[in-house]
Fold:
Amino acid sequence: MSRDNWNRWGAEDERGALNHIDAAAVKRAAELVVSGRVVSLAQPLSARTPFPPHRAGMQHFMGRSGGDYAAGARRPGGFQFAEDTLLMPAHFGTHIDALCHAWYDDQLYNGFPGAGTRGTTGAARCGIETMGPIATRGVLLDIVAVRGGPLADGAAIGVADLERAAKAAGGEPGKGDAVLIRTGMAERGIVSFETEPGLDLAAALWLAEREVAVVGADNFAVEVLPFAAGSVFPVHQRLIRDFGIPLLEGLVLQPLAEAGRGTFLFAASPLPVAGGTGSPISPMAIL
Amino acid sequence: MSRDNWNRWGAEDERGALNHIDAAAVKRAAELVVSGRVVSLAQPLSARTPFPPHRAGMQHFMGRSGGDYAAGARRPGGFQFAEDTLLMPAHFGTHIDALCHAWYDDQLYNGFPGAGTRGTTGAARCGIETMGPIATRGVLLDIVAVRGGPLADGAAIGVADLERAAKAAGGEPGKGDAVLIRTGMAERGIVSFETEPGLDLAAALWLAEREVAVVGADNFAVEVLPFAAGSVFPVHQRLIRDFGIPLLEGLVLQPLAEAGRGTFLFAASPLPVAGGTGSPISPMAIL
Amino acid sequence: MSRDNWNRWGAEDERGALNHIDAAAVKRAAELVVSGRVVSLAQPLSARTPFPPHRAGMQHFMGRSGGDYAAGARRPGGFQFAEDTLLMPAHFGTHIDALCHAWYDDQLYNGFPGAGTRGTTGAARCGIETMGPIATRGVLLDIVAVRGGPLADGAAIGVADLERAAKAAGGEPGKGDAVLIRTGMAERGIVSFETEPGLDLAAALWLAEREVAVVGADNFAVEVLPFAAGSVFPVHQRLIRDFGIPLLEGLVLQPLAEAGRGTFLFAASPLPVAGGTGSPISPMAIL
Amino acid sequence: MSRDNWNRWGAEDERGALNHIDAAAVKRAAELVVSGRVVSLAQPLSARTPFPPHRAGMQHFMGRSGGDYAAGARRPGGFQFAEDTLLMPAHFGTHIDALCHAWYDDQLYNGFPGAGTRGTTGAARCGIETMGPIATRGVLLDIVAVRGGPLADGAAIGVADLERAAKAAGGEPGKGDAVLIRTGMAERGIVSFETEPGLDLAAALWLAEREVAVVGADNFAVEVLPFAAGSVFPVHQRLIRDFGIPLLEGLVLQPLAEAGRGTFLFAASPLPVAGGTGSPISPMAIL
Structure:
């Protein structure tokens, strides 16, 4: 049982590696803004957004719409409006995993009991509402550029890949960074949620040891699928539960890569759903 | 029929006043980061989050949870996880209105037909997915400070209030700004969605004429309720439809006010729901 | 620990007292049809249907509607249509409780483990899909008639009430019957889910011992609220878990009472939701 | 424009051909009960229930479950319970179409305006809540038996098929009947919602002219797919809109066919959703 960052920020801490982002880190990240260009890193959300088979897709229910007025609805004071309702898994499209999302040995990050997350109440500890907004230095590790093209399904990204990509980025991943891994999977079109390119465990641990705050990727699970023999979501187990590092999944990274900037101000903010295990999110890079 | 900003950015434009935010404005906003402190401006989301009677509340459905493992669920490879599904109105908690949300005379911002927003398809034009991430200068207009306490229900905020608050903020609202109006309503507890303190129409137009990009408040509708006689949501009608200014509602502004900063880097990013009329949002101020 | 009907129909039985309804009972019930009049016993379902505070209300989402065509939607081959989506608690409006709905000492009816009902899978045993359609003799026990008016909140219905009402109905409740208890609560308007007229435990056991198949009422919980001191839902505990008798709640019984028939063919059929704990239902009396 | 049954039961009628079922018909149907055996005609409902691509599947959200207690939830007074929430299209699994579901030329059955069905309000006329419970004679027309096996996709069932099947059933379809057509599609497994065996228009009109009350089948649309050239859902258009005959779709008919009874008491009752366009339903045949 590993407990790498447990108790590092106190027995009650629920924010894990986000604690690596201090005010000075935010300020340094803001100084990276050179051009003022803003790049979205989020997938569009609709019934066509891909999702794994054990989840359901998004449903977008319109309530009042222009159709109501065309059909004769009143418009008091001239006012017309349209409204809608959203149904989606918390882990849908571009999203972030709360620290209560994955664990092992019945203990979450920092030793909180897994049994504290229940059907009626959601997560008692490490829910997405404890995460808060994230602003820090972003580092794009463009493995597509390093490898010369989008990675194949099942291709493992190792430490050497990260090191080469970091050199190209002009920024070693370090304390408090949001590290974004481009595998090219999203650009190829997602074919399967059972096999995908992604981090191997050693690469993930290399990032954790560098004290990064968040690890994201343009794939479904950050880590390579299928897993190494005998393991199930080993990167989730180690990064989320042992190091307290939230994972960002389903990023759109091609436009950022094309912008030619390896480091930038990264800003993202989950919906603070009480007891939630994650949140759809719409991150931005400010260049 | 007013069409203040129609065609200003071309016949196909769907972003309205967000076009006032150019790269230079973003860069200037990033330069406002002094301390690196990050303040969340979002309400927690749960079944207790207030909502108006014509909408429904949030439902948070847990799927797999710690309860499943306690009850004997398998944990292949040791892996345990929890997941959930979110159901909520797009206009819930802290949220932003897309430009397709409100209109009159059957035409949206820039003349797009209201009938293009339909039950089956959502908004054909000016949907929330066209908005993109927002990073710009934020200006807090703290009317609570100006008036000496939270405003009463029905209290109209006029141009003079804004001018006084702007002076206190140390920043005249101007081109491309995200202007955040603190009424104190949220701090009092929301009692009613039929009466609240908020902008009067003249104050709203004063902001629009200064070419701000976004107007937000810590109340339900930005504008004062009840409306002036004979009008229904006049600020929505004019700002959203005529000027193309999105409204940010349900902000939490007390912590920002207490931080003592009138201008800052504001960052917020809606979920890009295809054809959606708005989005729950979790904005931040970077001080 | 009581296990009144456990193993009565075998160790694998999931239908409980519904086993009391044999083909001969159905045939005898059909012979009660005299006039051929059909009376609905179901509440209308809408956002206005009352529900207890720990549940959420119904949401009825229209998809395609006449509004779409008014707004210009195509009608290939002339065809026009409207569709909708329903969201509701399984225990909403007029509904029936599956035998997995309530239990104690970690064991359901017939000794199945309570831990077999989980967030990811629903009920492994005694789910609503095991219930099947119900056709049997219905017996209306009109306590409103016996008492001379709708019962007050908190009024307990005892064995003597049932006996008097049975005499008036012209039919002693017996083996395989669906017994419907009219308290008058629905007619008064539901004021509270914390206090209501309903069966006391002795009356419930009196019915169970007569081997009835189903017990229903026009209130929220069949049983009287508040509970007798020291007990919580004692009638649910004993009838559902020990006797395997499903409860029918939220019935509309005034029209049936006014029809003047104490016994009739009762027909109702839950939606066979795999692993569900209950179902909204729309029962009928055929007179 | 055909208006076959319009005004037949008055200008305000919303029940259409269900008016053919009078009390005498119900009484005669009850007399068909010989053995007392009850056969369910409903599909199980789960995430695996097939649905056409323009709809979404069912979602079954557990709230409190046995997992909560295993994880330590309190059980006041010993009481334990499980609850859930259902989300599904109204036209899902075995279901019935309300008369507001399909129309043409902007008019529903009996001339009500199609524009009366709107996103905010649902159907103003002919909603599923106006249908009420259905008890009448059921007639099984077993085309599988007539043809010697399940029909192929695209196979049209004509008048001659119905006549042969009626002879085998020992009951000519007539006034007020619920006619159930067995194509064998469900037994083959549903492969496509674009091609299926079903009624041709002449066969549908043959039933309508015999004044049946309801037409059902074990396929997706009652009628044959693909449609005859130049038409779209012609049977829906004529039966629902012109004759006011509701359609029952997704029936399970093999067990009924194996029971060897051509006529029986049919009972089914939609959920009375205010303004709904249909309802999942769980019909029974009482033999």
Q: What stands out?
A: Chain C has a mean pLDDT of 96. Helices of chain C lie at 23-30, 66-70, 143-147, 159-169, 185-188, 201-209, 234-242, 254-259. The first helix of chain C runs from residue 23 to 30.
